Amino acid sequence: MKNYSLLNRISQNRLFLPLGALVLILVFDAIYAPGFFKLGVMQDADWGPHLYGNLIDVLNDAAPLALIAIGMTLVIATGGIDLSVGAVIAISGAMGAVLINPALGNQLRLNVEAARNATNTPLPIIVLAGLAAGTVCGLWNGFLVTKARIPPIIATLVLMVGGRGLAQLITNGQIMTIYYTPYFWFGNGFIFGIPVSIYIVLAVALLAWVVVRKTSIGLFLESVGINAKASYYSGINEQNVKLFAYALCGFCGAIAGLILSSYVHSEDANNIGLYYELDAILAVVMGGTSLAGGRFSIFASVVGAIVIWTFTLTVYTLGVPANALLAAKAVLVMLVILLYSEYFRRFMNRFSESKVPQYDIAEQKGTQHGTAN
Amino acid sequence: MAPRIDLAQRIDLAQQIKPFLLRYGPLLTTIVVFILLFLTGGWLYPAMQNPQVFFNLFINGGSLLLVSIGETLVILTAGIDLSVSGMIALTSAASAALLRGGVSPFIVLPLMVVMGIVFGLAQGCIIQFLKVQPFIATLMGLFFARGMAYIISLESVTIKDSFYKFLALTPLPIPLLDAYVYVPTLVGPIMFLVAVYLMFFTRFGRTVYAIGNNEQSAMLMGLPVTRTKIGVYVFSGLCSALAGIVFSISLLAGYGQFATGMELDAIASVVIGGTSLFGGIGNVIGTPFGVLINQTIVSVLQFNGTLSSWWTRIGVGVLTLIFIGVQSLFYLRRKP
Fold first, then answer.
1. How confident is the model at residue A366 (pLDDT cuts 50, 70, 90)?
2. Which helix (H) or strand (E) holds B171?
3. Paired sense of beta strands B171-173 and B157-158, if any
4. How many of the other CB atoms lie within 10 Å of CB of B19?
5. Is residue B17 part of a domain?
6. B233 lies in which domain range?
7. At residue A59, does pLDDT exceed 50?
8. What's the pLDDT tens digit per position in B167-211?
9. Confidence at residue A9, expressed as pLDDT on a 0 to 100 scale
10. CA distances, A125 to each of A65, A129, A261 (Å)
11. Does B265 have pLDDT greater than 50?
12. How much is the pLDDT for B124?
């Protein structure tokens, strides 16, 4: 009978590595960046009293990435990949910006105060349109992958290349500034002093968790990711499962696009959400989901996204220029790669195997030790 | 000539043509599409009939051609190299900073080439020995290279070196035609010839195809898989460094933001050029045509003047999709 020790059970958990990385970075912050943990209450003219501080910023900034990581996790679980999420962000942000004021791209709005409450389209329709645009993008990807049978990396590459062009088409190539205050609520608003975006992430993560873990969809996703053909022969509609994953990924990208464009009060089709697909893949990999598909964990991916942004803000706090952050991030990726590489795994295996004989001897002696393996 | 022999010859010819078409169909389609696109452009905008416009495709697409050639070899091994644009930025920023510091261009140029080779070698080793997916490893390369470029300089650095200016501004006349190119323009075609030689006339080239088709069996056949795979990334690194040099010469500047997204254009060019992203199918000859198609779209948009630049992206995206379709028509589709 296998009797896992507590330490072993913790280290086997999916959340162990990303949480471990998070704790490491936070410990680093505690030593080298005093004030990182400072929290305060701030009065805001628009949004009332709310919490502020680096920790809140981390969660707020990580929200769009976490949302995309949730969708990306499901896509990667089916053995696919979605490179187009950055473009989807741009498209849904463009939809939002254009629907608020279609003319804004072409003429200067002089009366900013009047524009604060002016919109051409009611807010619910703006949100629905943005979400619909993202979901259509996701369905398009899913269609290419399932019906046209194009490998995911190529199928989503098409939208990755063309998507930002489409977004520019929507905004007429302008960087659109948004003045409509109610729209800013998604990126800047607060509920009980905590940013709205955090609630959105929690809601989407919970919803996704319920859908995949409390129904059989999660099992289907994993089985398709492990062996699509075998799942097909065992009666799973492999195409619909994949379609669902890509559509959900597009949907999550659309929410992220709304939050991001609302957060920065503008829509720049060329630069909004740039490299988010790469960050999202990194977050998913950090969460322990294999790029080959199969087992996945939504919450581990969310933690992965938080790790990335904690790292980012830490680097900012240390005074590294924003653009040079890319190199620092590369070092982080390198570490993650090393942690997940076969060399490291083999090294860890050797490490744990060396203990096995001891336990065997112990058992022969009749003691009540549990085996570590 | 007796008719029977003629018939036999004809059947023989038909039997030869079919595999030829199956193999080179996408390549021929690419060439035809390029010619049609260019002729349509010339028909719509008579100014495009000037031979200089054709050579401008090479002048403006010089660095894209270089990175696409390197990318082709990588994709043929069923890998991918996303770091090419980062390498362009790093090379341009590093060479501009060195030249500003008074280092001779004759030291800077070889140094940049060596840097590209070392960079490619590092990526190849990470992919081959640490068994990291090429996608992730080269993505890290992209971040790293761009970040390093920003660490070198946060702002654009102009190049005032006289040798660079000489290279950038001296037109080389094309014989018999009223047209010219620049010295850096020639680097792309030269590397193309090198790649053609490597792919068609060396064992290295055959091994690249073998790895792309099935790495396991290539290894079981005793082919030098490790060496070849690393070699492919080294070649791509070399090509991107050369592309960075060409880029910095043509703009006479170095900046970390140069060539953003060029890896996508390169991959699209390779796909349009008839190389399958599965690896093992396609050849390097199609790639320049993919680049030419990309550049033709750009110049048609420029000649039109009213269409906006984002149509390039949409056009390239649509063309990529079409050519993926063409590929799946011609090449035997593999199981997912």
1. very low
2. strand B171-173
3. unpaired
4. 9
5. no
6. 27-330
7. yes
8. 888 888 888 777 888 888 889 999 999 999 999 999 999 999 999
9. 64
10. 24, 6, 16
11. yes
12. 93
Look at the block and give the residue holding tokens 């805001």: A44
Give the helix/strand (H/E) hosting A113.
Answer: helix A112-115
Residue identified by tokens 């320049």 is B288
Q: Which residues share a beta bridge with A39? A: A53
Instruction: Supply the pTM of this predicted model.
Output: 0.79
Q: Does A165 touch chain B (CB under 8 A)?
A: yes
Any idea which residue has 């037109």 for tokens? Answer: B171
Which CATH number goes with the domain that contains A292? 1.10.3470
Q: Do B320 and A161 lie within an 8 Å CB cutoff?
A: yes
CATH number at residue B115: 1.10.3470
Report the domain count for chain A: 1
d(CA A344, CA A77) in angstroms, rounded, equals 23
- Residues of chain A with C-beta less than 8 angstroms from the C-beta of B146: 326-327
For residue B124, which of B183, B180, B83 has the smallest C-alpha distance? B83
Q: Are B186 and B249 contacting, i.e. CB atoms less than 8 angstroms apart?
A: no
Give CA–CA dist B214/B200, Å, rounded.
Answer: 19
Residue of chain B whose alpha carbon sits nearest to that of A159: B317
Which residue from A minimizes the CA distance to B269? A161
In the stretch 253-282 of chain B, residues with CB closer than 8 A to chain A read 256, 264-265, 267-268, 271, 277-278
Report the residue of chain B nearest A166, measured CA to CA. Answer: B314
- CB contact at 8 A, B327 and B27: no
Q: Highest-confidence range of A66-70, A111-115, A214-218, B259-263, by mean pLDDT?
A: A66-70
Does residue A269 lie in a domain region? yes
Boundaries of domain holding A211: 6-320
A51: three-class secondary structure by DSSP: strand
Q: Is B324 on the interface with A (CB under 8 A)?
A: yes
Listed range (A302-306, B15-19, B181-185) with the worst mean pLDDT: B15-19
Instruction: Count how many domains chain B has.
Output: 1
Is A154 an interface residue toward B (CB < 8 Å)? Answer: yes
Structure-derived torsion over alpha carbons of residues A144, A149, A153, A159, reported in degrees to the nearest 10? -20
- The predicted-structure confidence for B27-55, as pLDDT tens digits, reads as follows 888 899 899 988 888 888 888 888 888 88
Tell me if A25 sits within 8 A of A314, measured CB to CB: yes
Chain A residues closer than 8 Å to B312 by CB: 165
Domain-located, residue B281: yes
What crossing angle do the helices spanning B105-129 and B84-100 adopt, rounded to 10°? 150
pLDDT for A8: 65
